[in-house]
């Protein structure tokens, strides 16, 4: 709704238990929903909350309340008059906060028009009590119209309701170009973290699904993938850079029965992911498909069903309702966690999470973990003669490699002076919206990762211990 149809929507302070009322007049009555955005900030944090409110669902209850309010005598148009009263009050306050003569004149004109329209006695209007004039024919002459006092009069400059706020009001309505959902935190505006307007291009490096791991090697122009067949309840170390950036990422697995026809007896997915940040101070973010816990200077529990952005100096968390969570650390590290939520899940489906590395510039070359160990690595492919057919697996596609293909023969991956047999596969990422062609390492990424996959199972979600193992033999 346009700014001129909304009452005061900027408040300098809010205390626990206090009440804030904002009234507005809809200009598009055919709309099915109303988009509401609330921003708040203090000395070290800013918060943005968004929600789309269904208007059709509120129509019956609103109608009942309006009928009750207008049931009394002389109460016709009660709700509209209430909006008019609050708008006049807001205009009078705006006059005191105005910084220019044109701004002051606009507030004055708006408040005056509403005062006259609804017959409100305000500092901008006058009420005259006169003895009616009886004409010769016995009728009463019409009263002359009441004029508003000058904007420069002493009466117009008086306001008894509230003290001036001192800040320019900010609009609560959504701009036309602003999307309804927000992929990542945007740039700061007046100290607040605003939702961005453009979606971020994610890296392929991720752990999603069963869980399926994808590692992108941009310098080598190669993408490698592997599976980890863990057990329900296992906590996997995804990223650890505890000594340098202070960042550690762990994910907990949940079990689910395999779908009919699957070669597996069970599947495992990430049910929760924790990001621990030890620098410059201890904090953590815990993400599940239903809620996000941000524990830093204060502890916030945020529902995943609402779009919220929290900016706490070196740590920003942006939630896009029921879609994803973006965590930005010190402006140089960014992780995106996708939420996979089923409305009517099949017996083999579980709500789960996917973990993606969007920006790793702030991670050191000592970074480790199932994904972290490859961030600064380069790999090469070598070719052996022969024909290989890739096995079919979950979210993969069978591809035959023959001598007629450019990538003919049995391929081997050289990583950290180790040789790993790989085959070509296709993998679906970003909730199935993108397909990645990758070289697949079998047997829980044997020889591809340092050590064995059980070395990456940690004791609990907040474990930040350094990588205690060495590398594999050649």
Automatic annotation (TrEMBL):
- Give TM segment ranges: none
Q: Which Pfam families match?
A: ITI_HC_C (PF06668)
- List the molecular function annotations (GO) for this entry: serine-type endopeptidase inhibitor activity
What top-level branch of life does the organism fall under? Answer: Eukaryota
Give the span(s) annotated as Disordered: 186-205
Q: Which InterPro entries match?
A: ITI_HC_C (IPR010600), ITIH (IPR050934)
What Gene Ontology biological process does one annotation of this record name? hyaluronan metabolic process
Looking at the record, the residues that make up the Inter-alpha-trypsin inhibitor heavy chain C-terminal domain are 245-443
Protein name as annotated: Inter-alpha-trypsin inhibitor heavy chain C-terminal domain-containing protein
Tell me the organism. Answer: Pangasianodon hypophthalmus
């Amino acid at each position: 709704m346009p700014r001129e149809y909304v009452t005061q929507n900027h408040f300098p302070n809010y205390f626990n238990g206090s009440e804030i009322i904002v009234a507005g007049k809809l200009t598009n009555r055919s709309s099915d929903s109303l988009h509401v955005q609330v921003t708040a900030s203090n000395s070290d944090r800013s918060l943005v909350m968004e929600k789309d409110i269904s208007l059709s669902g509120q129509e019956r209850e609103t109608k009942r309340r309006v009928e009750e309010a207008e049931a009394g005598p002389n109460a016709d148009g009660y709700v509209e008059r209430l909006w008019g009263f609050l708008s006049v009050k807001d205009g009078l306050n705006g006059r005191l906060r105005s910084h220019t003569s044109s701004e002051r004149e606009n507030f004055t004109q708006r408040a005056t028009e509403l005062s006259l329209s609804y017959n409100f006695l305000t500092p901008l209007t006058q009420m005259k009590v006169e003895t009616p004039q009886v004409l010769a024919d016995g009728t009463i002459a019409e009263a002359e119209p009441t004029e508003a006092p000058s904007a420069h009069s002493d009466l117009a400059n008086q306001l008894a309701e509230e003290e001036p706020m001192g800040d320019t009001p900010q609009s609560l309505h959504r701009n036309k170009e602003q999307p309804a959902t927000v992929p990542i935190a945007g740039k700061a505006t007046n100290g607040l973290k605003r939702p961005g307007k453009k979606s971020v291009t994610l890296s392929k490096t991720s752990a999603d699904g069963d869980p399926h791991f994808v590692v992108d090697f941009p310098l080598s122009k190669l993408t490698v993938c592997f599976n980890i067949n863990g057990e329900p309840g296992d906590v996997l170390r995804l990223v650890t850079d505890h000594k340098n950036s202070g960042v550690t990422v762990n994910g907990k697995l949940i079990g689910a029965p395999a779908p009919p026809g699957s070669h597996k007896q069970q599947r495992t997915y990430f049910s929760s992911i924790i990001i621990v940040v030890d620098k410059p101070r201890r904090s953590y973010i815990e993400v599940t498909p239903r809620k996000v816990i941000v524990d830093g200077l204060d502890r916030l529990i945020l529902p995943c069903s609402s779009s919220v952005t929290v900016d706490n100096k070196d740590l920003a968390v942006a939630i896009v309702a029921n879609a994803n969570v973006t965590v930005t650390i010190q402006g140089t590290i960014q992780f995106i966690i996708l939420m996979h939520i089923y409305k009517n899940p099949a017996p083999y489906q579980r709500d789960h999470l996917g973990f993606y590395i969007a920006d790793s510039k702030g991670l050191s070359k000592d970074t480790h973990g199932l994904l972290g160990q490859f961030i600064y690595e380069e790999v090469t492919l070598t070719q052996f003669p022969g024909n290989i057919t890739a096995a079919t697996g979950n979210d993969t596609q069978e591809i035959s490699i023959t001598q007629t293909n450019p990538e003919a023969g049995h391929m081997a991956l050289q990583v950290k002076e180790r040789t790993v047999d790989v085959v070509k596969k296709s993998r679906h990422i970003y909730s199935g919206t993108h397909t990645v062609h990758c070289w697949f390492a079998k047997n829980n990424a044997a020889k591809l990762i340092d050590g064995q996959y059980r070395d990456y199972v940690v004791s609990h979600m907040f474990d930040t211990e350094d990588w205690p193992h060495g590398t594999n033999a050649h």
